[in-house]
UniProtKB/TrEMBL annotation:
The protein's name: Rab-like protein 2A
GO molecular function: GTP binding; GTPase activity
Location of region: Disordered: 202-224
Family assignment from sequence similarity: Belongs to the small GTPase superfamily. Rab family.
Naturally occurring in which organism (per UniProt): Ridgeia piscesae (Tubeworm)
One Pfam family per UniProt: Ras
Superkingdom to which the source organism belongs: Eukaryota
Signal peptide: none
Length: 224
């Protein structure tokens, strides 16, 4: 699918200058736009692609000796229809899958977003962000098995106070670059690093929404 009105991210141009595309996925109002805005703060120029109800946040950065032009793609509400236009996925190099820790349904919908992502982009790195932890920091003691199950790097983040946002987005940029250059071990490196990292020095354990789900299952089994 080629469309001249959309930017192209095929490898071209200066060897030290790379263009990458990162997409955010997740239910409406989980904080996708706020996370991109928080990461970029003042350093972005939003560009509206009204035909597609999209905003591209353009960001220039340095990774090692490489100059990287990152386009963060953001939707304008298309996710309410639980499905994105294929152009959203086209040529994407990495994805940040976002849910809202204050709304369990947004976690429960991750598998359907992930399935759609893998339909269009079977191989790109995908990172998982649990947003709005500022509402109740105790949520960071809980584990969320979806990310573990799919071997995705997982981040507790807050677009409101900035916790972990830079870390998550920098990792996404590095993962996108590694994907573009056919390097396969970068995701393993992130996973190892995150295994050794905790938000506040405590180990993240006990139950998350998954366990709540299991408890609910047990309860309904006991009733029937
Ligand atoms: N407390 C808290 N609120 C947040 C955070 N991130 C986003 N919000 C709020 O959540 C609401 C939705 O944020 P958006 O960034 O617009 O969410 P979105 O996923 O882009 O939503 P749509 O584009 O409308 O689908 C807004 O009212 C934000 O202020 C956060 O980290 N903490
Ligand atoms: Mg938005």
């Amino acid at each position: 699918m080629e469309d001249a009105s959309l930017p192209s991210y095929d490898p071209k141009g200066d060897a030290n200058e790379t263009k990458i595309k990162i997409i955010c996925l997740g239910d409406s109002a989980v904080g996708k736009s706020k996370l991109v805005e928080r990461f970029l703060m003042d350093g972005y120029q939003p560009q509206q692609l009204s035909t597609y109800a999209l905003t591209l946040f353009k960001h220039k950065t340095q990774v090692g000796d490489q100059e990287v032009h990152v386009d963060f793609w953001d939707t304008a509400g298309q996710e309410r229809f639980k499905s994105m236009h294929p152009s959203y996925y086209h040529q994407a190099h990495a994805c940040i899958l976002v849910f809202d820790v204050t709304r369990k349904v947004t976690y429960k919908n991750l598998p359907s977003w992930f399935t759609e992502l893998r339909h269009y982009r079977p191989e790109i790195p995908c990172l998982c962000a649990a947003n709005k932890i500022d509402v109740d920091y105790s949520i960071t003691k809980k584990s969320f098995n979806f990310a573990k199950k799919h071997k995705m790097p997982f981040y507790f983040v807050s677009a409101s106070d900035g916790t972990n946002v830079v870390k998550c987005f920098r990792d996404a940029i590095k993962a996108a670059l590694a994907y573009k250059s056919n390097s396969t071990d970068f995701m393993d490196e992130i996973m190892k690093e995150l295994d050794n990292m905790t938000l506040d020095g405590d180990s993240i354990s006990s139950s998350g929404f998954d366990a709540t789900e299991q408890e609910e299952d047990k309860e309904s089994a006991a009733k029937s």
